[in-house]
Amino acid sequence: MKTKHFLGIVASAWMLAACSNWDELLQQDELVAKQCVTVNAYVPDGTGSRLAFEDQGENGLKVSWKESGESFSVMTAEEAEPVTFTQTEGSEFAGPNGFTFAEGTDYYAYYPALDPEMWGEWNENTEQNELNVSAKAIPFDFYNQTGQLDGSMNLMYAKRSAEGDFHFQHMLAVMKFTLKGIQGELVNDVEISFAHESVECFSDGKVDVTGESPDFEVEASPNLVCIPTDELVSDGAGNYVVYAYLPPLAADTKVTITAYSEDGSYYKTWRDNFIINNEGIKAGYYYTAARTMDADGAENVLLNHTAGNVADLEKWIEAVRTYPNVNLTLTANIDWTNAGLDYDNDYNETNDSNWPSELWIAGTVDGGGYSITGIKIASGEEHQAAPFYIGPTGVVKNLHLKTVDISGMYAGGIACENRGIISGCSVSGSVTTLSSNYNVGGIVIDNYGSVTGCYNIATVKGVDSYVGGIAGYNNDGGIITACYNTGALSATAPNEGTYIGGVVGYNYDTGIITACYWNCTGATNGIGEDENSQTATEVDGTTVTWETAMEAMNTALPSDFGDWRYKQSTAENEPLILDKSGNNDYVPV
Question: How confident is the model at residue 524 (pLDDT cuts 50, 70, 90)?
Fold first, then answer.
Protein backbone atom coordinates (compact mmCIF):
# COMPACT_ATOMS: atom_id res chain seq x y z
CA MET A 1 0.00 0.00 0.00
CA LYS A 2 1.34 3.44 -0.90
CA THR A 3 1.38 5.98 1.93
CA LYS A 4 1.35 9.72 1.30
CA HIS A 5 3.72 12.11 3.00
CA PHE A 6 2.46 15.59 2.13
CA LEU A 7 5.45 17.91 2.16
CA GLY A 8 4.09 21.32 3.00
CA ILE A 9 5.74 24.29 1.36
CA VAL A 10 7.60 26.12 4.13
CA ALA A 11 9.05 29.59 4.18
CA SER A 12 11.90 30.12 1.77
CA ALA A 13 15.36 30.47 3.22
CA TRP A 14 16.15 32.65 0.30
CA MET A 15 14.62 33.68 -2.99
CA LEU A 16 16.76 33.99 -6.04
CA ALA A 17 16.47 36.61 -8.74
CA ALA A 18 14.10 36.13 -11.64
CA CYS A 19 15.25 35.88 -15.24
CA SER A 20 13.40 37.05 -18.35
CA ASN A 21 9.69 37.84 -18.49
CA TRP A 22 7.97 34.46 -18.69
CA ASP A 23 4.91 35.58 -20.65
CA GLU A 24 7.08 37.10 -23.33
CA LEU A 25 9.15 33.94 -23.49
CA LEU A 26 6.10 31.77 -24.06
CA GLN A 27 4.85 34.03 -26.82
CA GLN A 28 8.01 33.82 -28.90
CA ASP A 29 7.43 32.19 -32.27
CA GLU A 30 11.07 31.53 -33.03
CA LEU A 31 13.32 29.03 -31.28
CA VAL A 32 15.51 30.77 -28.74
CA ALA A 33 19.14 30.10 -27.92
CA LYS A 34 18.37 29.54 -24.23
CA GLN A 35 15.35 28.69 -22.18
CA CYS A 36 15.85 30.36 -18.82
CA VAL A 37 13.88 29.61 -15.66
CA THR A 38 13.93 30.93 -12.13
CA VAL A 39 14.56 28.42 -9.37
CA ASN A 40 13.34 28.98 -5.83
CA ALA A 41 14.39 26.63 -3.03
CA TYR A 42 12.07 26.05 -0.09
CA VAL A 43 14.35 25.03 2.76
CA PRO A 44 13.39 25.18 6.47
CA ASP A 45 15.45 27.64 8.49
CA GLY A 46 18.67 26.18 9.87
CA THR A 47 18.45 22.97 7.90
CA GLY A 48 20.29 21.35 5.05
CA SER A 49 19.97 20.85 1.34
CA ARG A 50 21.51 18.76 -1.41
CA LEU A 51 22.56 22.10 -2.84
CA ALA A 52 26.18 22.97 -2.12
CA PHE A 53 26.76 22.64 1.62
CA GLU A 54 29.34 21.57 4.17
CA ASP A 55 29.16 19.98 7.59
CA GLN A 56 29.29 22.56 10.38
CA GLY A 57 29.29 20.06 13.26
CA GLU A 58 26.76 20.89 15.96
CA ASN A 59 25.65 23.91 13.96
CA GLY A 60 24.33 21.66 11.19
CA LEU A 61 25.01 22.45 7.57
CA LYS A 62 26.08 25.57 5.75
CA VAL A 63 23.87 25.80 2.69
CA SER A 64 24.06 27.83 -0.50
CA TRP A 65 23.39 27.51 -4.19
CA LYS A 66 26.46 26.80 -6.22
CA GLU A 67 27.48 29.66 -8.48
CA SER A 68 27.10 27.49 -11.57
CA GLY A 69 27.02 23.93 -12.80
CA GLU A 70 23.94 22.58 -11.00
CA SER A 71 21.32 20.82 -13.09
CA PHE A 72 17.85 19.40 -12.75
CA SER A 73 15.46 17.42 -14.95
CA VAL A 74 12.17 18.67 -16.34
CA MET A 75 9.38 16.62 -17.85
CA THR A 76 5.66 16.71 -18.40
CA ALA A 77 3.03 14.65 -16.64
CA GLU A 78 3.19 12.29 -19.60
CA GLU A 79 5.78 9.55 -19.82
CA ALA A 80 8.53 11.38 -21.68
CA GLU A 81 12.31 11.65 -21.56
CA PRO A 82 13.56 14.32 -19.15
CA VAL A 83 15.01 17.60 -20.37
CA THR A 84 18.04 18.83 -18.44
CA PHE A 85 18.34 22.44 -17.26
CA THR A 86 21.81 23.58 -16.22
CA GLN A 87 22.65 26.47 -13.91
CA THR A 88 24.44 29.37 -15.60
CA GLU A 89 24.67 31.67 -12.57
CA GLY A 90 22.63 32.43 -9.48
CA SER A 91 19.06 31.36 -10.05
CA GLU A 92 19.25 31.15 -13.83
CA PHE A 93 18.94 27.65 -15.29
CA ALA A 94 19.05 27.21 -19.05
CA GLY A 95 17.45 24.41 -21.03
CA PRO A 96 18.62 22.97 -24.33
CA ASN A 97 18.49 24.99 -27.52
CA GLY A 98 15.10 24.83 -29.15
CA PHE A 99 13.19 23.68 -26.07
CA THR A 100 9.96 25.55 -25.39
CA PHE A 101 7.31 25.21 -22.72
CA ALA A 102 3.77 24.61 -23.90
CA GLU A 103 1.03 26.58 -22.21
CA GLY A 104 -1.52 24.55 -20.30
CA THR A 105 0.92 21.69 -19.68
CA ASP A 106 2.14 20.70 -16.24
CA TYR A 107 5.92 20.45 -15.94
CA TYR A 108 7.71 18.71 -13.10
CA ALA A 109 11.33 19.02 -12.06
CA TYR A 110 13.64 16.71 -10.12
CA TYR A 111 16.90 17.69 -8.51
CA PRO A 112 19.57 16.44 -8.91
CA ALA A 113 19.12 15.69 -12.61
CA LEU A 114 18.12 12.16 -13.56
CA ASP A 115 20.95 10.13 -15.07
CA PRO A 116 20.12 9.50 -18.75
CA GLU A 117 22.16 6.29 -18.67
CA MET A 118 19.69 4.87 -16.16
CA TRP A 119 16.64 5.20 -18.42
CA GLY A 120 14.94 2.01 -19.46
CA GLU A 121 13.35 -1.07 -18.07
CA TRP A 122 14.70 -3.58 -15.56
CA ASN A 123 17.56 -5.51 -17.18
CA GLU A 124 17.76 -9.07 -15.86
CA ASN A 125 21.02 -9.77 -17.65
CA THR A 126 22.96 -7.07 -15.81
CA GLU A 127 21.19 -7.35 -12.46
CA GLN A 128 20.89 -3.56 -12.30
CA ASN A 129 17.87 -1.62 -11.15
CA GLU A 130 17.43 0.77 -14.04
CA LEU A 131 15.09 3.73 -13.92
CA ASN A 132 11.81 3.56 -15.77
CA VAL A 133 11.56 7.31 -16.28
CA SER A 134 8.10 8.80 -15.99
CA ALA A 135 6.81 12.15 -14.82
CA LYS A 136 4.10 10.32 -12.94
CA ALA A 137 6.42 7.98 -11.05
CA ILE A 138 10.13 8.72 -10.74
CA PRO A 139 11.87 5.84 -8.99
CA PHE A 140 15.34 6.32 -7.59
CA ASP A 141 17.66 3.95 -5.79
CA PHE A 142 17.07 4.33 -2.07
CA TYR A 143 20.22 2.35 -1.26
CA ASN A 144 22.32 5.05 -2.93
CA GLN A 145 20.97 7.99 -0.97
CA THR A 146 23.91 8.00 1.47
CA GLY A 147 27.52 9.10 1.33
CA GLN A 148 29.65 12.21 1.45
CA LEU A 149 27.45 15.23 1.86
CA ASP A 150 28.53 17.08 -1.27
CA GLY A 151 28.18 14.02 -3.49
CA SER A 152 24.86 12.58 -2.40
CA MET A 153 21.33 12.74 -3.64
CA ASN A 154 18.97 14.52 -1.27
CA LEU A 155 16.15 14.59 -3.77
CA MET A 156 14.12 17.74 -4.33
CA TYR A 157 10.92 18.08 -6.34
CA ALA A 158 9.16 21.00 -7.99
CA LYS A 159 6.16 21.79 -10.14
CA ARG A 160 6.25 24.76 -12.50
CA SER A 161 4.22 27.63 -11.13
CA ALA A 162 1.84 29.93 -12.99
CA GLU A 163 4.61 32.50 -13.08
CA GLY A 164 6.83 30.06 -14.94
CA ASP A 165 9.41 29.23 -12.28
CA PHE A 166 10.09 26.06 -10.30
CA HIS A 167 9.63 25.98 -6.53
CA PHE A 168 11.69 23.13 -5.13
CA GLN A 169 10.94 21.36 -1.88
CA HIS A 170 12.80 18.52 -0.21
CA MET A 171 11.90 14.87 -0.38
CA LEU A 172 14.30 13.59 2.29
CA ALA A 173 16.04 14.56 5.50
CA VAL A 174 19.73 14.06 6.23
CA MET A 175 20.82 12.48 9.52
CA LYS A 176 24.35 12.17 10.87
CA PHE A 177 24.82 9.14 13.12
CA THR A 178 27.87 8.79 15.36
CA LEU A 179 28.12 5.09 16.21
CA LYS A 180 29.90 4.32 19.48
CA GLY A 181 30.87 0.98 21.00
CA ILE A 182 32.29 -0.82 17.95
CA GLN A 183 35.84 0.54 18.13
CA GLY A 184 38.54 -1.68 16.71
CA GLU A 185 36.25 -3.64 14.42
CA LEU A 186 36.36 -3.44 10.64
CA VAL A 187 32.70 -2.76 9.89
CA ASN A 188 31.44 -4.03 6.53
CA ASP A 189 28.21 -2.09 6.36
CA VAL A 190 25.52 -0.40 8.40
CA GLU A 191 21.77 -0.79 8.00
CA ILE A 192 19.29 1.75 9.30
CA SER A 193 15.76 0.40 9.39
CA PHE A 194 12.58 2.08 10.52
CA ALA A 195 9.19 0.64 11.42
CA HIS A 196 5.99 2.65 11.47
CA GLU A 197 2.53 2.33 9.96
CA SER A 198 3.30 5.25 7.65
CA VAL A 199 6.16 3.36 5.98
CA GLU A 200 5.54 0.24 3.92
CA CYS A 201 8.15 -2.39 3.04
CA PHE A 202 8.62 -3.88 -0.36
CA SER A 203 11.54 -5.62 -1.96
CA ASP A 204 13.85 -3.67 -4.20
CA GLY A 205 15.02 -0.51 -2.45
CA LYS A 206 12.97 2.02 -4.38
CA VAL A 207 11.18 5.20 -3.48
CA ASP A 208 8.52 6.36 -5.92
CA VAL A 209 7.73 10.06 -6.10
CA THR A 210 4.37 10.83 -7.66
CA GLY A 211 2.07 13.78 -8.07
CA GLU A 212 2.20 17.40 -6.99
CA SER A 213 2.30 16.32 -3.34
CA PRO A 214 4.70 13.38 -3.59
CA ASP A 215 3.78 9.93 -2.38
CA PHE A 216 6.55 7.89 -0.79
CA GLU A 217 6.52 4.19 -1.41
CA VAL A 218 9.57 2.99 0.46
CA GLU A 219 10.48 -0.40 -0.90
CA ALA A 220 13.04 -2.23 1.21
CA SER A 221 13.11 -5.40 3.24
CA PRO A 222 12.84 -4.49 5.99
CA ASN A 223 12.41 -0.68 5.69
CA LEU A 224 16.07 0.13 5.58
CA VAL A 225 18.91 2.19 4.25
CA CYS A 226 22.17 0.33 3.70
CA ILE A 227 25.47 2.22 3.94
CA PRO A 228 28.46 0.39 2.39
CA THR A 229 31.95 0.31 3.83
CA ASP A 230 33.41 3.07 1.68
CA GLU A 231 30.85 5.53 3.04
CA LEU A 232 31.72 5.00 6.72
CA VAL A 233 34.04 7.63 8.17
CA SER A 234 35.77 8.12 11.53
CA ASP A 235 35.20 11.02 13.91
CA GLY A 236 38.84 10.81 15.07
CA ALA A 237 37.86 9.27 18.40
CA GLY A 238 37.43 5.69 17.21
CA ASN A 239 33.75 6.01 16.35
CA TYR A 240 32.11 5.45 12.99
CA VAL A 241 30.15 8.30 11.43
CA VAL A 242 27.34 7.59 8.99
CA TYR A 243 25.27 10.02 6.96
CA ALA A 244 21.85 8.70 5.95
CA TYR A 245 18.99 10.19 3.98
CA LEU A 246 15.58 9.23 5.32
CA PRO A 247 12.02 9.87 4.17
CA PRO A 248 9.79 11.90 6.50
CA LEU A 249 9.02 9.76 9.55
CA ALA A 250 6.40 10.22 12.25
CA ALA A 251 7.34 10.98 15.87
CA ASP A 252 6.69 7.44 17.08
CA THR A 253 8.73 5.65 14.42
CA LYS A 254 11.07 2.99 15.74
CA VAL A 255 14.56 3.17 14.24
CA THR A 256 17.07 0.33 14.39
CA ILE A 257 20.74 0.77 13.49
CA THR A 258 22.64 -2.43 12.77
CA ALA A 259 26.36 -2.66 12.01
CA TYR A 260 27.95 -5.77 10.54
CA SER A 261 31.54 -6.96 10.59
CA GLU A 262 33.22 -9.95 8.97
CA ASP A 263 36.56 -11.10 10.40
CA GLY A 264 36.99 -14.27 8.34
CA SER A 265 35.48 -16.56 10.95
CA TYR A 266 32.26 -14.82 11.99
CA TYR A 267 29.78 -12.35 10.64
CA LYS A 268 29.25 -10.14 13.70
CA THR A 269 26.40 -7.83 14.61
CA TRP A 270 25.95 -4.66 16.69
CA ARG A 271 22.58 -3.01 17.21
CA ASP A 272 20.86 0.00 18.73
CA ASN A 273 17.17 0.93 18.87
CA PHE A 274 15.49 4.24 19.56
CA ILE A 275 12.15 5.97 19.03
CA ILE A 276 11.91 9.23 17.10
CA ASN A 277 10.29 11.78 19.36
CA ASN A 278 9.19 15.42 19.29
CA GLU A 279 8.19 16.38 15.76
CA GLY A 280 9.61 13.37 13.97
CA ILE A 281 11.86 13.62 10.92
CA LYS A 282 10.95 16.29 8.37
CA ALA A 283 12.06 16.58 4.80
CA GLY A 284 14.89 19.09 4.35
CA TYR A 285 16.03 19.06 7.98
CA TYR A 286 19.47 18.07 9.23
CA TYR A 287 19.69 15.88 12.35
CA THR A 288 22.49 14.46 14.48
CA ALA A 289 22.32 11.39 16.68
CA ALA A 290 25.02 9.77 18.85
CA ARG A 291 24.17 6.12 19.43
CA THR A 292 25.89 3.44 21.53
CA MET A 293 25.94 0.15 19.66
CA ASP A 294 25.59 -3.04 21.70
CA ALA A 295 27.19 -6.27 20.48
CA ASP A 296 24.56 -8.86 19.57
CA GLY A 297 26.44 -12.13 20.02
CA ALA A 298 23.31 -14.20 19.46
CA GLU A 299 23.29 -13.08 15.84
CA ASN A 300 26.93 -13.86 15.08
CA VAL A 301 27.10 -16.21 12.11
CA LEU A 302 29.85 -18.80 11.68
CA LEU A 303 31.23 -18.31 8.16
CA ASN A 304 32.84 -21.72 7.53
CA HIS A 305 30.76 -24.84 8.15
CA THR A 306 31.50 -28.53 7.74
CA ALA A 307 28.68 -31.09 7.60
CA GLY A 308 28.78 -34.86 7.86
CA ASN A 309 25.27 -35.39 9.22
CA VAL A 310 21.76 -33.94 9.18
CA ALA A 311 22.24 -31.73 12.24
CA ASP A 312 25.36 -30.10 10.79
CA LEU A 313 23.61 -29.44 7.49
CA GLU A 314 20.64 -27.86 9.26
CA LYS A 315 22.97 -25.46 11.05
CA TRP A 316 24.50 -24.41 7.75
CA ILE A 317 21.07 -23.88 6.16
CA GLU A 318 20.03 -21.52 8.95
CA ALA A 319 23.37 -19.68 8.75
CA VAL A 320 23.30 -19.18 4.98
CA ARG A 321 19.71 -17.94 5.15
CA THR A 322 21.01 -15.19 7.41
CA TYR A 323 24.17 -14.42 5.46
CA PRO A 324 24.74 -15.79 1.94
CA ASN A 325 28.56 -15.66 2.15
CA VAL A 326 28.62 -18.64 4.54
CA ASN A 327 30.70 -21.55 3.18
CA LEU A 328 29.99 -25.28 3.44
CA THR A 329 32.19 -28.38 3.06
CA LEU A 330 30.66 -31.86 3.21
CA THR A 331 32.64 -34.55 5.03
CA ALA A 332 30.29 -37.51 4.44
CA ASN A 333 27.21 -38.59 2.52
CA ILE A 334 24.00 -37.25 4.09
CA ASP A 335 20.55 -38.85 3.81
CA TRP A 336 18.03 -36.01 3.93
CA THR A 337 15.00 -38.14 3.02
CA ASN A 338 13.33 -38.39 6.41
CA ALA A 339 15.21 -35.62 8.15
CA GLY A 340 15.65 -31.89 7.99
CA LEU A 341 13.32 -29.01 8.65
CA ASP A 342 9.85 -28.51 7.19
CA TYR A 343 9.78 -25.64 4.72
CA ASP A 344 6.65 -24.06 3.32
CA ASN A 345 7.93 -23.41 -0.18
CA ASP A 346 4.50 -22.79 -1.66
CA TYR A 347 3.55 -20.33 1.11
CA ASN A 348 0.30 -22.07 1.97
CA GLU A 349 1.46 -23.83 5.15
CA THR A 350 1.39 -27.30 3.64
CA ASN A 351 4.94 -27.94 4.88
CA ASP A 352 5.60 -30.60 2.26
CA SER A 353 9.18 -29.57 1.47
CA ASN A 354 12.22 -30.63 3.44
CA TRP A 355 14.57 -28.09 1.83
CA PRO A 356 14.16 -24.30 1.46
CA SER A 357 13.93 -23.31 -2.19
CA GLU A 358 16.56 -21.00 -3.70
CA LEU A 359 19.09 -20.70 -0.89
CA TRP A 360 21.18 -17.71 -1.95
CA ILE A 361 24.82 -18.76 -2.36
CA ALA A 362 27.47 -16.04 -2.38
CA GLY A 363 30.24 -18.20 -0.88
CA THR A 364 31.38 -21.75 -1.68
CA VAL A 365 29.55 -25.05 -1.27
CA ASP A 366 32.08 -27.87 -1.67
CA GLY A 367 30.55 -31.34 -1.69
CA GLY A 368 33.96 -33.01 -1.69
CA GLY A 369 32.51 -35.71 -3.95
CA TYR A 370 29.86 -36.63 -1.36
CA SER A 371 26.09 -36.70 -1.81
CA ILE A 372 22.90 -35.36 -0.26
CA THR A 373 20.04 -37.80 -0.81
CA GLY A 374 16.30 -37.09 -0.74
CA ILE A 375 15.92 -33.34 -1.16
CA LYS A 376 12.25 -32.51 -1.72
CA ILE A 377 11.04 -29.09 -2.84
CA ALA A 378 7.37 -28.54 -3.64
CA SER A 379 6.89 -24.88 -4.49
CA GLY A 380 3.54 -25.01 -6.26
CA GLU A 381 2.58 -23.43 -9.57
CA GLU A 382 3.48 -19.86 -8.58
CA HIS A 383 6.97 -20.21 -7.10
CA GLN A 384 10.40 -21.30 -8.31
CA ALA A 385 11.87 -24.57 -7.11
CA ALA A 386 15.58 -25.34 -6.84
CA PRO A 387 18.01 -25.95 -3.96
CA PHE A 388 20.15 -22.86 -4.69
CA TYR A 389 20.28 -19.45 -6.26
CA ILE A 390 23.96 -18.91 -7.11
CA GLY A 391 25.09 -15.29 -7.11
CA PRO A 392 28.04 -13.82 -9.04
CA THR A 393 30.51 -14.81 -6.29
CA GLY A 394 28.85 -18.15 -5.53
CA VAL A 395 30.37 -21.58 -6.19
CA VAL A 396 28.72 -25.00 -5.90
CA LYS A 397 31.16 -27.80 -6.71
CA ASN A 398 31.80 -31.55 -6.31
CA LEU A 399 28.27 -32.11 -5.01
CA HIS A 400 25.89 -34.93 -5.93
CA LEU A 401 22.16 -34.56 -5.27
CA LYS A 402 20.52 -37.99 -5.32
CA THR A 403 16.84 -38.93 -5.77
CA VAL A 404 15.65 -35.32 -5.66
CA ASP A 405 11.93 -34.56 -5.93
CA ILE A 406 11.70 -30.95 -7.13
CA SER A 407 8.62 -29.28 -8.58
CA GLY A 408 7.44 -25.71 -9.00
CA MET A 409 6.66 -22.90 -11.42
CA TYR A 410 10.28 -23.09 -12.61
CA ALA A 411 12.38 -26.07 -11.55
CA GLY A 412 16.10 -26.85 -11.47
CA GLY A 413 18.11 -29.71 -10.01
CA ILE A 414 20.93 -27.52 -8.57
CA ALA A 415 19.95 -23.88 -9.13
CA CYS A 416 17.12 -21.72 -10.37
CA GLU A 417 19.71 -19.21 -11.63
CA ASN A 418 23.46 -19.55 -11.83
CA ARG A 419 25.46 -16.35 -12.09
CA GLY A 420 28.57 -17.91 -10.58
CA ILE A 421 30.06 -21.40 -10.91
CA ILE A 422 28.63 -24.91 -10.87
CA SER A 423 31.28 -27.61 -11.35
CA GLY A 424 31.61 -31.33 -10.77
CA CYS A 425 27.97 -31.81 -9.76
CA SER A 426 25.27 -34.34 -10.63
CA VAL A 427 21.52 -34.79 -10.11
CA SER A 428 19.27 -37.86 -10.04
CA GLY A 429 15.54 -38.19 -9.32
CA SER A 430 12.92 -35.89 -10.89
CA VAL A 431 12.75 -32.18 -11.73
CA THR A 432 9.33 -30.91 -12.85
CA THR A 433 7.85 -27.60 -13.99
CA LEU A 434 4.16 -27.24 -13.12
CA SER A 435 3.30 -23.99 -14.92
CA SER A 436 2.97 -22.91 -18.52
CA ASN A 437 5.64 -20.65 -20.09
CA TYR A 438 8.35 -21.48 -17.54
CA ASN A 439 11.67 -23.25 -18.07
CA VAL A 440 13.16 -26.36 -16.49
CA GLY A 441 16.69 -27.75 -16.39
CA GLY A 442 18.27 -30.85 -14.89
CA ILE A 443 21.13 -28.81 -13.40
CA VAL A 444 19.99 -25.18 -13.72
CA ILE A 445 16.93 -23.36 -15.02
CA ASP A 446 18.67 -20.22 -16.35
CA ASN A 447 22.46 -20.13 -16.67
CA TYR A 448 24.34 -16.81 -16.81
CA GLY A 449 27.58 -18.19 -15.33
CA SER A 450 29.59 -21.36 -15.94
CA VAL A 451 28.53 -25.00 -15.63
CA THR A 452 31.50 -27.35 -15.97
CA GLY A 453 31.89 -31.11 -15.63
CA CYS A 454 28.30 -31.80 -14.53
CA TYR A 455 25.85 -34.51 -15.47
CA ASN A 456 22.14 -35.15 -15.03
CA ILE A 457 20.34 -38.49 -14.91
CA ALA A 458 17.10 -37.15 -13.41
CA THR A 459 13.88 -37.07 -15.42
CA VAL A 460 13.12 -33.50 -16.48
CA LYS A 461 9.52 -32.53 -17.24
CA GLY A 462 8.20 -29.23 -18.55
CA VAL A 463 4.86 -27.93 -19.75
CA ASP A 464 5.35 -25.88 -22.92
CA SER A 465 8.56 -23.83 -22.72
CA TYR A 466 12.32 -24.61 -22.61
CA VAL A 467 13.34 -28.06 -21.36
CA GLY A 468 17.02 -28.98 -21.09
CA GLY A 469 18.91 -31.90 -19.63
CA ILE A 470 21.55 -29.52 -18.21
CA ALA A 471 20.01 -26.04 -18.60
CA GLY A 472 16.58 -24.88 -19.67
CA TYR A 473 18.01 -21.58 -20.91
CA ASN A 474 21.70 -20.84 -21.45
CA ASN A 475 21.48 -17.09 -21.21
CA ASP A 476 23.66 -14.06 -21.99
CA GLY A 477 27.26 -15.00 -21.13
CA GLY A 478 26.38 -18.55 -20.08
CA ILE A 479 29.12 -21.15 -20.59
CA ILE A 480 28.50 -24.91 -20.41
CA THR A 481 31.53 -27.17 -20.72
CA ALA A 482 32.04 -30.95 -20.58
CA CYS A 483 28.56 -31.88 -19.35
CA TYR A 484 26.23 -34.72 -20.26
CA ASN A 485 22.62 -35.79 -19.79
CA THR A 486 20.85 -39.17 -19.88
CA GLY A 487 17.71 -38.10 -18.01
CA ALA A 488 14.43 -38.48 -19.93
CA LEU A 489 12.94 -35.17 -21.14
CA SER A 490 9.32 -34.27 -21.85
CA ALA A 491 6.79 -31.45 -22.17
CA THR A 492 3.17 -32.12 -21.21
CA ALA A 493 1.62 -29.45 -23.47
CA PRO A 494 4.14 -28.66 -26.23
CA ASN A 495 3.46 -25.83 -28.68
CA GLU A 496 5.40 -23.72 -31.16
CA GLY A 497 7.29 -22.08 -28.29
CA THR A 498 8.47 -25.37 -26.79
CA TYR A 499 12.15 -26.27 -27.22
CA ILE A 500 13.55 -29.51 -25.83
CA GLY A 501 17.28 -30.16 -25.90
CA GLY A 502 19.29 -33.09 -24.64
CA VAL A 503 21.69 -30.57 -23.08
CA VAL A 504 20.08 -27.10 -23.43
CA GLY A 505 16.52 -26.14 -24.23
CA TYR A 506 17.34 -22.67 -25.61
CA ASN A 507 20.80 -21.23 -26.20
CA TYR A 508 21.03 -17.44 -26.32
CA ASP A 509 23.13 -15.73 -29.00
CA THR A 510 26.12 -15.34 -26.67
CA GLY A 511 25.80 -18.71 -24.93
CA ILE A 512 28.79 -21.06 -25.33
CA ILE A 513 28.51 -24.86 -25.26
CA THR A 514 31.67 -26.99 -25.49
CA ALA A 515 32.17 -30.78 -25.47
CA CYS A 516 28.68 -31.66 -24.19
CA TYR A 517 26.87 -34.95 -24.82
CA TRP A 518 23.45 -36.54 -24.44
CA ASN A 519 21.54 -39.78 -24.86
CA CYS A 520 17.96 -39.66 -23.66
CA THR A 521 14.34 -40.05 -24.63
CA GLY A 522 12.26 -36.99 -25.46
CA ALA A 523 14.90 -35.01 -27.35
CA THR A 524 15.82 -34.99 -31.02
CA ASN A 525 18.62 -32.45 -30.71
CA GLY A 526 21.26 -31.58 -28.17
CA ILE A 527 20.10 -27.94 -28.25
CA GLY A 528 16.39 -27.30 -28.72
CA GLU A 529 16.84 -23.84 -30.21
CA ASP A 530 20.22 -22.24 -30.83
CA GLU A 531 21.10 -18.62 -31.63
CA ASN A 532 24.88 -19.05 -31.59
CA SER A 533 25.81 -22.01 -33.83
CA GLN A 534 26.68 -24.26 -30.88
CA THR A 535 26.56 -28.07 -30.82
CA ALA A 536 25.89 -30.83 -28.32
CA THR A 537 26.60 -34.36 -29.51
CA GLU A 538 24.35 -37.40 -29.23
CA VAL A 539 26.00 -40.57 -28.00
CA ASP A 540 24.48 -43.06 -30.44
CA GLY A 541 26.72 -45.97 -29.47
CA THR A 542 28.10 -46.32 -33.00
CA THR A 543 29.51 -43.09 -34.37
CA VAL A 544 29.93 -41.65 -30.90
CA THR A 545 30.40 -43.84 -27.82
CA TRP A 546 30.62 -42.93 -24.15
CA GLU A 547 34.32 -43.67 -24.28
CA THR A 548 34.62 -41.07 -27.05
CA ALA A 549 32.54 -38.63 -25.01
CA MET A 550 34.62 -39.28 -21.89
CA GLU A 551 37.88 -38.52 -23.68
CA ALA A 552 36.49 -35.33 -25.24
CA MET A 553 35.02 -34.03 -21.99
CA ASN A 554 38.15 -34.77 -19.96
CA THR A 555 40.19 -32.93 -22.57
CA ALA A 556 37.85 -29.94 -22.39
CA LEU A 557 37.89 -29.68 -18.60
CA PRO A 558 39.86 -26.55 -17.65
CA SER A 559 43.07 -26.67 -15.62
CA ASP A 560 41.35 -25.11 -12.60
CA PHE A 561 38.77 -27.91 -12.47
CA GLY A 562 40.97 -29.85 -10.04
CA ASP A 563 41.75 -33.54 -9.91
CA TRP A 564 38.25 -34.75 -10.82
CA ARG A 565 37.87 -36.52 -14.16
CA TYR A 566 35.23 -38.66 -15.84
CA LYS A 567 35.55 -42.46 -15.67
CA GLN A 568 33.27 -45.23 -16.88
CA SER A 569 30.57 -46.59 -14.58
CA THR A 570 28.39 -49.69 -14.48
CA ALA A 571 25.45 -47.89 -12.87
CA GLU A 572 22.16 -47.72 -14.82
CA ASN A 573 21.68 -44.41 -16.68
CA GLU A 574 25.03 -43.25 -15.31
CA PRO A 575 27.57 -44.19 -17.97
CA LEU A 576 30.25 -41.88 -16.56
CA ILE A 577 31.06 -40.73 -13.06
CA LEU A 578 33.47 -38.18 -11.66
CA ASP A 579 36.54 -39.60 -9.96
CA LYS A 580 39.75 -38.17 -8.60
CA SER A 581 42.42 -38.86 -11.15
CA GLY A 582 44.78 -41.68 -10.16
CA ASN A 583 42.61 -42.87 -7.25
CA ASN A 584 42.04 -46.53 -8.20
CA ASP A 585 40.44 -47.36 -4.84
CA TYR A 586 37.88 -44.57 -5.08
CA VAL A 587 34.28 -45.75 -4.60
CA PRO A 588 31.80 -43.43 -6.30
CA VAL A 589 29.13 -41.96 -4.00
Answer: very high
